[in-house]
Amino acid sequence: MILKRSSEIDIMAEAAVINRRALEAVARAVAPGVTTAELDAIAEDMIRSQGGTPAFLGYNGFPASLCTSINHVVVHGIPDNTKLRSGDIISVDIGTFYKGYAADMAHTFAVGEVPKRTKDLLTATEQSLYAGIAHMHVGRKMGDVSAAIQEVVEAAGFWVVREFVGHGIGTSFHESPEVPNYGHAKRGAKLRSGLVLAVEPMVTMRKTSVEILDDGWTAPTQDGSLAAHFEHTIAITNDGPRILSAEDQAPLTSPEVLRDPTPYMFAGGAYGS
């Protein structure tokens, strides 16, 4: 584990604010007829206008500032001239570097009206993220976070993606340790103050596997199942988990705080643009 000083976490919080504002700008633009390339340009302009650098652009050769994953694409969709259509869902993953530190965030949006079961998928995925965060207290185990996420997803009748996991984050965009979205409580590494994690449940409508297309990035479900993806950057502190990418960054003093996670949810909402 790479632990951060409080001063480093404060810089990461600044990066997260920039990242969040860029995602909010994208959220306002999500609508039928808009291309994913147009969303990408909005994100890059907003990040740079606030002094940040898009973390994804050029990362291992990735060609854009956003990952835009539509419908059955789980993660790493590449922005292009594809137009959004009413009834689509789109997962937008965004990262920013600022003063040498990174922040990461993702949200799945509905484009216009979608079926109830699709709304349920988005709701369960987002709720699972906050269920995991509720266990991110000093002395807990990584498995507590993973098991809480899995429990919410499976109780709703959906499937947790196994092929991708969350990660540590700091001066590098991906650091140890990995954060699985499935597992067993009371197992794994002990959580320590100063650890900053990008927790990101990825969930599909049905049990399936994930493929990688020939572009080396785009990761669709094998059977065409819809997929959702939500993510926050969270610092573990002695006072509780601090959601750096939430509007309210105050540490959460107890797991009970997140029984109603509404104050910490992204303002774009789970169900529409």
Task: Give a verbal description of the structure.
By secondary structure, the protein is an alpha+beta fold. The protein has one domain: Creatinase/methionine aminopeptidase superfamily (Creatine Amidinohydrolase), CATH 3.90.230.10. The strands form four sheets. A five-stranded antiparallel sheet has the order 8-7-9-13-14. Strands 1, 2, 4 and 5 form a four-stranded antiparallel sheet that branches. The protein has a three-stranded antiparallel sheet with strand order 6-10-12, with helices on one face. A hairpin with a 2-residue loop joins β13 and β14. α1 runs antiparallel to α2 and α3 packs antiparallel against α4. It is globular, with a radius of gyration of 17 Å. The termini are far apart. The C terminus is likely disordered.
- CATH fold category name: Creatine Amidinohydrolase
CATH architecture grouping: Alpha-Beta Complex
Order of helices and strands: HHEEEEEHHEEEEEEEEE
Per CATH, the superfamily is Creatinase/methionine aminopeptidase superfamily
Distance, first to last CA: 37 Å
**Uncertain stretches:** 269-273
Number of strands: 14
Largest sheet: 5 strands, antiparallel
Name the quaternary structure.
single chain
| Number of H/I helices | 4
CATH class identity = Alpha Beta
**Share of helix among residues?**
25-40%
Spatial order of the strands forming the largest sheet: 8-7-9-13-14
Outline, from the CA principal axes?
globular
Average pLDDT works out at 94
Strand content: 15-25%
Instruction: Give me the Rg, rounded.
Output: 17 Å
Category by helix and strand content: alpha+beta
